[in-house]
C-alpha cells in the first residue's frame, strides 16, 4: 500500500504537530491501517530526531540559509527569479563574447593556425580573465570538498572523562546525549565560589574542561569560529599534556573545516612531535599526508 | 471582558505580554496553553513514540510540555518569537518535542546504566548494553549520513530546509519557485528515496 500526496501532507502536519485532536484520532486510525505510512512516519521522525539530537545545522554539501525569508511567497519568488535572470544574462554575455572572439580569426582564412591560437589565448587572457579565475575556483572548490571530506572522516566527538566537575555535569550529560546547546550557552565567566573543592571541582579544571567541551559542542554544531575561540582558550591556559593534545587535535579539525590547511598542518605537526596520544599522532600523520598530496 | 484563548494565542500578543512582563495576560496565556494544547501534545507523543512504554511517554510528555511552555516564555521575553513565521502552536510543540526527546533519551540512558549495574552485580559481562545502545545509535546516524551522501545535492538541500532549518512548505516552495503541491510530492519522493537508500546500505552491511 502506497501513500498519496494528501496522506503525506497529513503526515507532515502530524510531525509538525499541526493537527487538532479529532484529526489526530483519525490520523492514528489511518496509520494503523496503512503500514507503509507508519513506516514512512517512523523513518521521518527518526531522521528529525537524529538531526535534532546531534544539533546538526547543516547537511554535507548544502547551503545553510539561517536568515529568515520574507513570509509571503511572492517576494521570495521574485528574488529567486531575479537571481536566475542575472545568472542567465551573465552566461549569455560570456557566450556572446566567446563566440565573437572565436569567429574573428575565422574571418581571416589566411592567418596561420598558430596565430589563431595566439589570438584566442590573448582574448581569453585579456577579455575574459575570469577564465583563469574559474579554473582556479574550480580547483579551489575541489580542494574545499576534500578538506570537508577529511574533516568528516576524522571528526568524532570525544567521550566524557571518568570524573567531571559538578558544575559541568548537566551540560556534559546533554553533550553525551547529543544536545549541544546547553554547553554552547554555558557561562564560564561566572563560576560559583566553592570552598575546599576537590581536584575535580577546582576552578582551573572546570574552566579547562568547560572550554574544551564547549569548543567541541560548537564544532559539532558547525560553528567553527566559536569552537576555535574555546579551544584556543584551553591551549593558552596550560592544560595537562593529554588535554593539550586533544585540544590541538580538535583545533586542527576546526581549521580543517574552515579550509585553513596551513593551520591544520601546523597543529598536526605539533601533535606528531609531542607523541602524547598515539591514536591522535596516527590520525595527525594521515591528515598531514592527505594535505601534502 | 476576559479575552478568549483564540484571541490570546498569537505571536504578537504573546511577545507583547512576556516581553513587557504583563502578569495578568501572561498568566491567561499560560493557562490557555495548558487547556488547549497539553492533552493534544501528550496524544501526539504517544502516537509518535509508541515504542516506549505508554506510562513513561505520558509522564515525560506532561513534564516536557511544562518545560516547553517555559522555553517559549523565555524566547518571547527575549523578543525571539517574531523571528519565526510559524504559528504559536507549532513553535510551542517544537520546544516541547525537543524537551521530550531529550527526556526520553535521558530516561533510556538511566535505564541502560541500571542494566549495566545489574550486570556488574551479577558478575556478568560488564557494560555491554550501554555500548551496544550507543553503537546502534551511531550506526543509525551513520546510515542516514551515508544515504544522504548518495543523494543528489538538490534533494539534500530540500532535506536541509525541511528537517534542519524547519522551513515551512510555503517558504521552500517560494525559494524553488514551484507550487506547494509539487513541493510536497517532491519532498515525499526525496524522503522515500532516502529511506530506501538507508535500507539498502543497512542490508549490504548486514
Task: Map the helices and strands.
The complex is a heterodimer of chains A (293) and B (206).
Chain A: H1 5-15, H2 21-33, H3 35-53, H4 73-106, H5 113-126, H6 130-154, H7 166-176, H8 181-185, H9 203-220, H10 224-236, H11 241-257, H12 261-274, H13 278-292
Helix pairs in contact in A: 1-3, 2-3, 4-5, 6-11, 7-9, 9-10, 9-11, 10-11, 11-12, 12-13
Chain B: H1 5-8, H2 11-19, H3 23-48, H4 54-77, H5 88-121, H6 128-150, H7 153-164, H8 169-176, H9 180-205
Overall description:
The complex is a heterodimer of chains A (293) and B (206). Chain A has 293 residues and is an all-alpha fold. Chain A has 13 helices and no strands. Chain A folds into three domains: 5-85, no CATH class; 108-137, no CATH class; 148-291, Tetratricopeptide repeat domain (Serine Threonine Protein Phosphatase 5, Tetratricopeptide repeat), CATH 1.25.40. Chain A has helices spanning 5-15, 21-33, 35-53, 73-106, 113-126, 130-154, 166-176, 181-185, 203-220, 224-236, 241-257, 261-274, 278-292. Chain B is flat. Chain B is mainly α and 206 residues long. In chain B, α5 (88-121) packs across α6 (128-150). The model of chain B is unreliable at 123-133 (pLDDT under 50). Chain B has two domains: 5-105; 151-205, Winged helix-like DNA-binding domain superfamily/Winged helix DNA-binding domain (Arc Repressor Mutant, subunit A), CATH 1.10.10. At the A-B interface, α1, α2, α3, α4 and α7 of A face α3, α5, α6, α7 and α8 of B.
Amino acid at each position: 500500500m502506497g501513500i498519496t500526496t494528501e496522506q503525506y501532507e497529513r503526515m507532515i502536519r502530524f510531525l509538525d504537530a499541526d493537527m487538532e485532536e479529532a484529526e489526530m484520532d483519525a490520523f492514528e486510525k489511518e496509520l494503523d491501517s496503512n503500514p507503509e505510512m507508519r513506516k514512512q512516519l517512523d523513518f521521518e521522525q527518526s531522521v528529525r530526531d537524529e538531526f535534532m539530537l546531534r544539533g546538526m545545522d547543516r547537511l554535507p554539501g548544502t547551503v545553510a540559509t539561517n536568515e529568515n525569508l520574507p513570509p509571503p511567497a511572492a517576494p521570495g519568488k521574485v528574488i529567486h527569479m531575479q537571481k536566475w535572470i542575472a545568472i542567465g544574462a551573465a552566461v549569455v554575455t560570456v557566450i556572446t563574447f566567446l563566440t565573437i572572439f572565436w569567429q574573428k580569426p575565422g574571418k581571416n582564412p589566411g592567418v596561420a593556425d598558430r596565430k589563431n591560437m595566439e589570438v584566442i589565448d590573448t582574448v581569453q587572457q585579456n577579455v575574459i580573465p575570469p577564465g583563469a579565475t574559474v579554473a582556479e575556483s574550480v580547483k579551489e572548490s575541489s580542494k574545499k570538498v576534500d578538506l570537508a571530506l577529511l574533516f568528516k572522516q576524522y571528526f568524532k566527538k570525544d567521550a566524557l572523562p571518568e570524573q567531571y566537575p559538578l558544575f559541568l555535569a548537566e551540560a556534559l550529560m546533554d553533550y553525551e546525549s547529543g544536545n549541544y546547546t546547553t554547553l554552547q550557552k554555558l557561562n564560564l565567566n561566572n563560576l560559583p565560589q566553592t570552598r575546599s573543592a576537590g581536584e575535580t571541582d577546582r576552578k582551573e579544571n572546570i574552566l579547562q574542561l568547560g572550554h574544551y567541551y564547549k569548543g567541541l559542542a560548537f564544532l559539532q554544531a558547525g560553528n567553527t569560529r566559536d569552537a576555535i575561540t574555546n579551544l584556543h582558550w584551553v591551549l593558552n591556559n596550560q592544560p595537562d599534556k593529554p588535554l593539550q593534545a586533544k585540544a590541538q587535535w580538535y583545533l586542527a579539525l576546526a581549521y580543517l573545516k574552515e579550509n585553513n590547511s596551513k593551520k591544520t598542518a601546523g597543529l598536526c605537526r605539533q601533535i606528531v612531535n609531542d607523541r602524547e596520544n598515539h591514536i591522535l599522532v596516527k590520525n595527525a600523520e594521515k591528515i598531514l599526508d592527505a594535505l601534502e598530496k | 471582558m476576559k479575552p478568549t484563548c483564540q484571541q490570546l494565542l498569537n505571536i504578537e500578543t504573546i511577545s507583547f505580554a512576556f516581553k513587557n512582563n504583563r502578569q495578568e495576560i501572561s498568566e491567561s496565556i499560560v493557562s490557555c496553553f495548558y487547556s488547549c494544547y497539553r492533552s493534544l501534545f501528550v496524544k501526539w507523543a504517544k502516537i509518535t513514540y509508541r515504542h516506549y512504554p505508554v506510562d513513561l511517554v505520558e509522564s515525560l510528555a506532561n513534564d516536557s510540555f511544562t518545560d516547553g511552555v517555559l522555553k517559549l516564555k523565555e524566547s518571547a521575553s527575549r523578543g525571539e518569537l517574531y523571528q519565526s513565521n510559524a504559528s504559536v502552536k507549532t513553535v510551542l510543540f517544537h520546544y516541547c518535542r525537543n524537551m521530550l526527546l531529550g527526556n526520553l533519551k535521558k530516561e533510556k540512558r538511566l535505564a541502560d546504566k541500571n542494566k549495566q549495574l545489574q550486570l556488574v552485580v551479577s558478575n556478568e559481562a560488564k557494560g555491554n548494553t550501554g555500548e551496544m545502545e550507543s553503537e546502534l545509535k551511531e550506526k543509525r546516524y551513520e546510515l542516514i549520513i551515508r544515504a544522504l551522501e548518495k543523494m543528489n545535492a538538490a534533494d539534500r538541500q530540500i532535506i536541509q530546509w525541511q528537517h534542519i532549518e524547519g522551513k515551512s512548505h510555503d517558504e521552500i516552495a517560494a525559494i524553488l519557485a514551484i507550487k506547494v503541491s509539487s513541493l510536497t510530492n517532491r519532498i515525499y519522493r526525496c524522503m522515500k528515496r532516502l529511506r530506501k537508500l538507508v535500507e539498502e546500505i543497512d542490508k549490504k552491511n548486514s
